[in-house]
Amino acid sequence: MRITIFAAGSQGDIQPCIRLGKGLQQAGLNVLLAAPQNFAGLVQGVGLPFHSLRGDVQQIMAGETGQKYMESGGTNPIQSILAMRKMLGPIALQMAEDALEASRHAEALITLAVFAPLGATIAEICEIPLVLVEPTPVLPTRDFPAPGWPIQKNLGGWHNRLSGFAMLEVIWQWYRPFVNEFRQRFGLRPLRGADFYHTLTSVPLLGAYSPAVIRSPQDWPGSIHLTGYWFDDAQTDWRPSSDLQAFLDEGKPPVYIGFGSMAGRDPQRFAGIVLDALSRSGRRGILATGWGGLNALDVPENVFILKEAPHGWLFPRMSAVVHHGGAGTTAEGLRAGKPSAIVPFIVDQLFWGKRVHGLGVGPEPIAAKKLTAVNLAVAIDRVVSDPIMRERVEMLGHSIRAENGVQNAVTILCQHLGV
């Protein structure tokens, strides 16, 4: 069976799709992964056939509009619509055209749930079934506020569910003009926000997160399946440089600190805060630069500057992890059984920070725009020295490591597709 997986966004959005694609390929299915060209090496490196999409999201986020969006924290949904339309405008239709081309000979299409309207459009044109996947919950529920909603407090079922519908509308408005212009080319009726919700609830949707972290809400339909996190076990076979291994061997386990692509227009400021906080706390640290350009000068001997290393290999060797709260990074920290101090920048990162804090496996998240050396040092001290927090996260990590999210997802997909 031929399956196309359409993925776009940051590396944290692409990686779950790669892992699912690899699992499907190992189960004997023919998988083609359609993603932006800048991820070609990542996809082909695991042996998956690759179809290039025009549009480099990393480059867009590194531009002026993207940097302003990250610095604002994305807390104003209306402003996020304007920013996302400005960023997506030059590439949205090109990406849709390329994704359609990649699906022409497919017998099923898998795409991220945030792109459900576009995925439904391509599936309708090609007359093939659609399956959705999500690293972060998208469907409204009474159980918790929607990721990306500015108020991440549980104010009750009505507020939580309404926030979900509000965020669905915001996401839809990000790219509504582009999707409907694309549909018009093929004589299809325009979509509305209600169609987004209908698609989410009428086709299989695989939640790539652990039920130990988010329990399946009772108000979700039976088409939603929480499979467990999708990890890459090959990461544990990675080999470090001699310098990194020497740093790990010469003292107590360090604190990992990295903000991925989120450092904004002033990465040096964040690097300065991190180094000051480590000095105040007296801890050894590994500072990951990421593609956000987080760099530091005059680094003391107790800090190691890391360009890249698989989190699945690195995090078990840390005492704690400090990061931006991306879904994938959060998952790796929890799987390793390490407390997390989360510094959210945009969209769903505050949601994961609040979830980690609510589970008692990390302190209250610190908004990036409010980060100081003092409050970061306090957070580092807490995640390293709190015995109750450490015991909880070790138990949670044990539960997560017992799951096999990719295999669960493959089994569900094969049953649905009749393979």
Which tags fit this structure?
419 residues; Rossmann fold; five-stranded parallel beta sheet; alpha/beta
Average pLDDT, to the nearest integer?
A: 91
- The coarse overall form would be globular
In CATH, the homologous superfamily of the largest domain goes by the name: Glycogen Phosphorylase B
The third-level CATH topology of the largest domain is Rossmann fold
Structural class: alpha/beta
Number of domains: 2
Proportion in helices:
40-55%
Strands in their spatial order, largest beta sheet: 3-2-1-4-5-6-7
How do the SSEs run, as a string of H and E? EHEHEHHHHEHEHHEEHEHEEHEHEHHHH
Instruction: Outline the low-pLDDT stretches.
Output: none
The main β sheet shows up as:
7 strands, parallel
Number of beta strands: 12
Measured by DSSP, the beta-strand proportion falls in 5-15%
- Radius of gyration, Cα only, in angstroms? 21 Å
CATH C-level category of the largest domain? Alpha Beta
Count of DSSP H/I helices: 17
Q: Which architecture of the largest domain would the CATH scheme give at its second level?
A: 3-Layer(aba) Sandwich
How is the secondary structure organized here?
Layout: E1 2-6, H1 11-26, E2 30-36, H2 40-44, E3 50-53, H3 57-62, H4 64-72, H5 77-88, H6 92-103, E4 108-112, H7 116-126, E5 130-134, H8 157-185, H9 193-202, E6 205-207, E7 224-226, H10 242-249, E8 255-258, H11 267-281, E9 285-288, E10 303-306, H12 311-314, E11 320-323, H13 327-335, E12 340-342, H14 349-358, H15 373-385, H16 387-401, H17 405-417
Parallel strand pairs: 1-2, 1-4, 2-3, 4-5, 5-6, 6-7, 8-9, 8-11, 9-10, 11-12
Helix pairs in contact: 1-17, 5-8, 6-7, 6-8, 8-9, 11-15
